[in-house]
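Dear Dr. V.,

Thank you for agreeing to look over these. As mentioned in my earlier message, I'm a first-year student in the group and I'm still getting used to reading structure tokens, so any feedback on how I've presented them would be very welcome. I ran two proteins. I've put each sequence directly above its structure. The first is here:
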Amino acid sequence: MISGGFNYPWKLYWLASSSTSNLSVIQTDDPKLELTYYNIPGLTVLLGLQEKGHVMNGEGTNKSFVVSGAAGSCGHLAGQFAGIYGCNPIIGICGSQMKCKILKEKLNFTYAINYKTENVVEKLGTYCPSGIDVYFDNVGGDVSEAVISKMNKDSHIILCGQISQYNKTSEYPPPLSDSETQLLKDQNITRERFTVINYMDKVTDTRLKLKELKPRIHVIDTVNSGLKNAGKAFCDMMNGKNIGKQLISLTD
């Protein structure tokens, strides 16, 4: 499978220059299954945990781990990787009971919270009585404010995304409230923006690690057929209707 940069047009055919498109080869027997895993979601999660989460090399043992947007492309992988690296408990925050069920029954999350029907602060207090050590943040906003209020001293926020804030005109990452800012300072909580394209020199080694972990990971994709459905698929994704990575299949 050939993978390129981050500027794919929505076309059936695309002529790319190997010198300008950052083309690379991914060794795989099933490219349909592994588009998600070996590309942006898998790389983002594993590099995020490594560079910002400090859970590798035994550091994650018995650390409480929370991920928002937990049934999305990065979120559903983040909880699984965190569990492999010893984090416990693993709590996923998502927006439906069906997603909560999948997190617990298929992806081995310890707990799942439906932020639309449950009190996130209360549930986090029950599930993480000793506080939260690592937070993989995909959404920002009220959900992240609830998580941050429960974080321990010297804990870490992996700032992957802020989807609840993307329609606003504020800078990225969106500024926190004065109380949240003070809490991060008092508790020495790290919160730095993270984007995988800043770590392209680590992609080859990270893909080798992903291959090693693959037998222990359950990858979920939501696939729509045909380029004509790309607009609908994009809107569905922005409305949280996808589970795992939202993909468009151009051809059989």
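The second protein is here, in the same arrangement:
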Amino acid sequence: MAWFKKRDDVKESSERLYVETHGAGDEQLVFLAGLGGTTRYWSTGVKSFESSYSVTLIDLLGFGRSPKPWTRYSVERHVTALHDVLSERGKVTLVGHSLGALIAIAYAAKYPSQVEELILISLPYFGSKDKAYEYFRGGTVRGGFLFTNVFLTMLTCILTRRVFGRLLPYFVRDLPGEVVKDLVQHTWRSSTSSLWEVVYRYDASADFRSLPKLFDVHFIHGDMDTTAPVEGVKVIAASRPNWELILLKGADHHPFLRETQKCIDLITRILSNSRSKNTR
């Protein structure tokens, strides 16, 4: 859409992404939330890792307490903002949820020597923009058509933030209240542009193929995830013998919130195995 590109020449904020770092371990875990998510998405669950790892939570560009410039929120723009924070931190393991998982892939493809491995939760991979549109308009996702009409998505975002924001916790009862409150910590520009540029238009398969052969990727996915169906992820996970897909029975798009301890145990096991492999 041309309107995404109209003001790309506007000088962008020099502020850096909002970052929280906890723990004092030598190994670094970096957590990236999905569309509309913030550091709060992870804050309770990741406390389990703070005794052994340096845990970093980051609000992606345009979300939470990070800058929200008027810009095209392309994959490249997100990766550049993230690299501005991570470039001085040495090797990291990236843990991403949904949109954050896509940004994590793109980051690892561009800076493979800086990323130890990827843990991707609820990765939205459809194969193409047309297939994504077809899926959302097929009726499986409630209000799916809304999310493939750019102007309706923009209008919904504005109304949610400015009119219904304080009421969301009363209507969205299947997510923790604090997380729901954070769903309005963005702008219509950052939310809508990120959805179109990253979720719909970004071909993650090319970046997956570019990763080094011995690079480890772990997929954690709910078998009841209707927002990001697992079929595409199964194809990607099967493309390398050292890539692992872990299916959680009965879990939807938010397994880290629904089954926090199970996800913590899985991530702990993945990290432990990586430690063992690296010390051989």
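From my reading of the second output: The chain has one domain: 2-127+203-278. Residues 1-14 have pLDDT under 50 and may be disordered. Does that match how you would interpret it?

Kind regards,
E.
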